[in-house]
């Protein structure tokens, strides 16, 4: 009903005052829409300030003023008043195909959450949104560098993940810069944890070797919670692992982090290298046997790993010592798991 009334509000200033007094966000939105359409030059900053300071009206004011795409005094004032908690609003404001000056001003916003929300509105790495003008690209890259997905809405986090995946293939320098900034934040915090958005670390494996070398050196000394980024940064790249060892940038024990849960080509390429550098087969086997999650009884998990190590000994003779160590570890753990499960059945659990 309020939207239908917009064309009929002959005195939008009076309607805005009445709607504000009545504490009606819908009518405030309608009056403001009409006001901005008929006589935007008469809309004072005092009116905008009062509306922005009221939590009931703030969302409507920002959406109404910026949604027009007009670069005028009202838009400039509202943009300047925006805070990080307003960033989620941009997700629905810029779904058109053409960029406008308002979006550019938001891209230059001093609040990183606002600037980065504007940056991921463009059709870069996903098909929706306005095209990024070439002249804006330096400002866009600066906003992306400071992108912190944890400050964004859930949908914007998804868009950020799409963008970061695109950068791995089309602008690896920018992805390295972004990840390095996240590592710097973690260094200040004192430990590493995989950054948001979830799964973005998987893009690291597609970076050129030089980029992965620098990121490995940057993160190797950080205590961590969860898996190491070395799984993606080094992965199956034995040449990179050898180079890091040769340059004394990492130790063989550091490289063990690359093998956590990696019962695949990563072990088959890096395992012989680590054995050659004196890493104990039992240490390699224990890291490889890590399982993030498992449905079912523990005994079935250990039997699954026993089958894997039996197969490994046949498939990769160079890793026979690792297979032997892993087999011994899992057989012992299988016996213990079976003992616990028998006891649980006796107790009726």
Word description of this protein:
The protein is mostly helical and 349 residues long. Among the domains are: 182-279, no CATH class; 281-349, no CATH class. It is 61% helix and 1% strand. The chain is built from 20 helices and 2 strands. It has helices at 2-5, 12-21, 25-38, 45-52, 55-67, 73-81, 90-93, 101-107, 112-119, 137-145, 154-170, 172-189, 209-219, 230-233, 238-246, 252-255, 265-276, 281-288, 298-315, 320-346; strands at residues 192-193, 224-225. A two-stranded parallel ribbon has the order 1-2. Strand 1 (192-193), helix 13 (209-219) and strand 2 form a beta-alpha-beta unit. The longest helix is centred in the last third of the chain and has 27 residues, at 320-346. It is elongated and about 85 Å long. The chain starts with a helix and ends with a helix.
In short:
Helix content is 61%, strand content 1%. The protein has 349 residues and is an all-alpha fold.
Search tags:
20 helices; single chain; 349 residues; mainly alpha; two-stranded parallel ribbon
Q: Which descriptor suits the 3D outline?
A: elongated
Main pleated-sheet profile: 2 strands, parallel
Helix/strand-derived category reads: mainly alpha
User: Hey, roughly how much beta strand do the residues contain?
Assistant: under 5%
Beginning-to-end CA distance, first to last residue: 61 Å
The percent range for helix content is: 55-70%
């Amino acid at each position: 009903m309020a939207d239908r009334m917009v064309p009929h509000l002959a005195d939008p200033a009076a309607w805005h005052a009445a709607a504000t007094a009545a504490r009606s966000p819908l009518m405030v939105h309608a009056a403001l829409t009409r006001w901005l359409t008929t006589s935007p030059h008469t809309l004072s900053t005092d009116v905008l300030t009062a509306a922005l300071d009221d939590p009931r009206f703030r969302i409507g004011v920002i959406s109404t003023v910026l949604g027009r795409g007009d670069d005028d005094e009202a838009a400039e004032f509202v943009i300047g008043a925006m805070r990080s908690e307003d960033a989620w609003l941009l997700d629905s404001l810029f779904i058109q195909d053409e960029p406008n000056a308002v979006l550019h001003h938001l891209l230059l916003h001093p609040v990183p959450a606002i600037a980065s929300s504007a940056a991921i509105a463009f059709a870069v790495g996903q098909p929706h949104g306005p095209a990024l003008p070439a002249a804006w690209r330096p400002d866009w890259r600066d906003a992306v560098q400071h992108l912190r997905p944890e400050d964004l809405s859930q949908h914007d986090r998804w868009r950020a993940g799409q963008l970061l995946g695109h950068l791995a293939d089309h602008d690896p320098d920018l992805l390295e810069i972004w990840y390095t900034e996240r590592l710097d934040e973690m260094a200040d915090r004192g430990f590493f944890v995989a950054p948001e958005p979830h799964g973005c670390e998987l893009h690291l494996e597609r970076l050129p070797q030089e980029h992965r070398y620098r990121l490995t050196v940057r993160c190797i000394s950080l205590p961590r919670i969860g898996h190491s980024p070395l799984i993606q940064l080094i992965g199956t790249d034995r040449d990179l692992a050898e180079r890091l060892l040769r340059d004394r940038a990492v130790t063989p024990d550091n490289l063990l982090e690359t093998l956590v849960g990696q019962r695949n080509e990563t072990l088959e390429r890096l395992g012989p290298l680590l054995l050659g550098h004196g890493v104990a087969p039992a240490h390699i086997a224990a890291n490889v046997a890590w399982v993030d999650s498992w449905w079912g009884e523990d005994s079935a998990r250990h039997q699954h790993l026993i089958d894997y190590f039996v197969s490994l000994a046949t498939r990769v003779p160079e890793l026979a010592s690792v297979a032997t160590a892993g087999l011994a570890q899992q057989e012992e753990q299988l016996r213990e798991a079976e003992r616990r499960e028998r006891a649980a059945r006796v107790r009726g659990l």
